[in-house]
Specification:
By secondary structure, the chain is an all-alpha fold. The chain has one domain (2-90). It is 61% helix and 0% strand. The protein contains 7 helices and no strands. Helix 5 packs across helix 6 and helix 5 crosses helix 7 (80-90). The radius of gyration is 13 Å and the shape is globular.
Amino acid sequence: MALSAVREEERAGYAERLETFAEQHRARLAELLRSYGPGSRPAEYGRYMLAGQPESLIICERMETVPFLLRGRWKKGLEIVLLDDLEFAWGPRTRLNR
């Protein structure tokens, strides 16, 4: 679902942009995994399940880059609470669930 929010004109070189995003946000991504990933207290309650998934990197990048497009695509096929939880844990500049 997150990859469907990568626009056609962004696809060439997206892997490299994703690498750059991961490098720029390494500490933030590590904190996300430590605080909300598998073995964390919030994860014990079944929340924040996306925090420990590999696709969370793409989702976080899309939240930063095209949050409205991501949310619109997400609503068409997945439970919005999953995105809401990851959005809360990531803490993007634009909160869309309010």
